UniProtKB/TrEMBL annotation:
Protein name, entry field: Malonyl-CoA decarboxylase
PANTHER family, per database record: MALONYL-COA DECARBOXYLASE, MITOCHONDRIAL, PTHR28641
Coiled coil: none
InterPro entries to which the protein is assigned, alphabetical: Malonyl_CoA_deC, Malonyl_CoA_deC_C, Malonyl_CoA_deC_C_sf, MCD_N, MCD_N_sf
Source organism (scientific name): Comamonas testosteroni (Pseudomonas testosteroni)
Domain Malonyl-CoA decarboxylase N-terminal positions: 100-187
Protein's GO biological process: fatty acid biosynthetic process
GO molecular function, one term: malonyl-CoA decarboxylase activity
Malonyl-CoA decarboxylase C-terminal domain span: 191-443
Pfam families: MCD (PF05292), MCD_N (PF17408)
Length: 471
């Protein structure tokens, strides 16, 4: 019944919106402003402007109008919103929360009825009553904005604004919660289209790849052309209401072995790989493009769809893996490395002290400033590999991997396969992980097994990573 607890918890957010949030110190409560005559202090809209905006929003949400007609009024409000400043946007949000929310008393009564239900029949009836109590004109208001062209993007961008607010601004949380709930249905994977992006795609679409690439910055058009060459594939998920914006995209290299470094993949002068020999697909960059869709997960489905598409085109592909960054590694070592280094045996400590000048995190990180200069037997390199293996293969919080990228891939059923030394010598790669990268392997026959292990708080790792974890 975990879903029920989560659902009940979300109703609290909607109820909070119906009850109204705590007003900013610089503003009167919204109800007072709507009844007033003059603007006061730092209020964005005058009472007259606020009342006019409320009337316009009520027109959009009018249940007597068709969705098409309501959508036309929504377009006019979208035009107003585009010209309005940030404080005026906040007034719009407050009106949506406080004037269009569910009936707080009815919602509270329905929740109490659900909590008190003692039988399955009572619980089912109480659930239906609770669902009805949650229906509000705010839902209809937001749905109407999705009607006109560009409306879905408008709502996604609006939520991105909400998510960018300081955490202290809690008064808008109900609107954020309702948008996330709507998006989870509107952006269901069954409604998305997988499309290949190539050099022949429209220029406006290709430019989106440069704009949204979040893992390895695209430096030039030549760099982009290399990533779309014959031995590469790029796929994205698209929504029919946002047809020119990939919601998430993945870049793939087709090779004859598992990649261990970014340099060959990003080498614009390198010849394309021989596709007749390709047996491995390397996912080397996955980028979400819409901040406003935070909490809506479709990355795992993207990988599954891409694997199916690739195997149809290239039946010889047998291995599917990533070449991934380890964004949290340096920071984790800085905070937790002392305890790990203290666990080394006397011989390892002596070797590390001689090579780095000390058996502590400060000396270790200082000795890792030029990782490409360290050979495989270097005590500094061995200590760093030990720390990295422990970070990825052992450390969890509430049963989940610490590293954000690891959480994504391991949650999809991959395993930690191999650590790659000096694999990303860019400024970003050195800053995040001292140049280290990791391969996550998608063994298609063991995805469910790996997910089951993770549910038990255990991380699936290869024998090589297991060996490194032991130091």
């Amino acid at each position: 019944m975990g879903w029920a607890a989560d659902w009940i918890e979300q109703t609290k957010l909607w109820a909070r919106g119906a009850e109204g949030g705590k007003a900013d110190e610089q503003q009167r409560p919204l109800a007072q402003r709507l009844d007033a005559t003059l603007r006061r202090g730092q209020e964005a809209l005058s009472p007259r402007e606020l009342r006019r905006l409320l009337q316009d929003m009520q027109q959009v949400a009018d249940a007597s109008l068709s969705d098409v007609e309501g959508g036309r009024y929504a377009q006019l409000l979208m035009d107003w919103y585009a010209k309005a400043d940030a404080p005026a946007h906040k007034d719009f949000w407050l009106l949506a929360i406080e004037q269009f929310g569910p009936d707080a008393k009815a919602l509270q009564a329905a929740r109490e009825r659900y909590d008190k239900a003692e039988s399955d029949v009572e619980r089912s009836e109480a659930e239906m009553a609770l669902r009805r109590a949650l229906i509000s004109s705010r839902t209809r208001l937001l749905q109407r904005f999705a009607q006109p062209q560009g409306g879905m993007g408008f709502l996604v961008d609006m939520r991105a604004e909400l998510l960018a607010l300081p955490k202290a601004e809690q008064r808008y949380v109900a609107l954020d919660a309702e948008l996330e709930h709507l998006f989870s249905n509107w952006f269901d994977v069954a409604l998305l289209e997988l499309r290949r992006l190539s050099w022949d795609s429209p220029a406006s679409l290709i430019e989106k790849l440069i704009q949204y690439e979040a893992v390895h910055d695209i430096r030039s058009w030549a760099d982009l052309k290399n990533r779309l060459d014959s031995d590469r594939r790029c796929y994205g998920f698209f929504h029919p209401r946002m047809p020119n914006v990939p919601l998430i995209f993945v870049e793939v290299a087709l090779l004859d072995k598992m990649a261990g470094s970014m340099a060959p993949l990003l080498d614009e002068t390198a010849a394309a790989a021989d596709l007749s020999k390709a047996n491995t697909a390397i996912f080397y960059s996955i980028s979400n493009t819409q901040t406003g869709l935070k909490g809506v997960s479709f990355g795992d489905s993207l990988i599954k769809h891409v694997v199916e598409t690739l195997t149809q085109e290239f039946p010889k592909l047998k291995q599917f893996a990533t070449l991934s960054p380890i964004p949290g590694l340096r920071n984790w070592i800085s905070k937790n490395g002392e305890a790990l280094l203290a666990g080394l045996d006397d011989k390892q400590k002596a070797a590390l002290e001689k090579a780095a000048g000390g058996v502590d995190v400060a000396h270790l990180l200082a000795a890792l400033e030029a990782p490409d200069s360290l050979n495989e037997k270097s005590p500094v390199r061995q200590a760093a590999m030990f720390c990295a293996a422990r970070y990825l293969g052992r450390e969890t919080a509430k049963g989940r991997p610490l590293d954000a990228v690891a959480r994504f891939h391991l949650g999809n059923g991959a395993r930690v396969e191999r650590l790659n030394w000096a694999a990303d010598l860019s400024a970003k790669g050195l800053k995040q992980s001292m140049g280290l990268m990791v391969n996550y392997l998608y063994d298609l026959k063991r995805l469910d097994k790996h997910r089951s292990l993770l549910a038990q708080g255990k991380i699936a790792v290869s024998s090589e990573i297991e060996s490194l974890c032991k130091g």
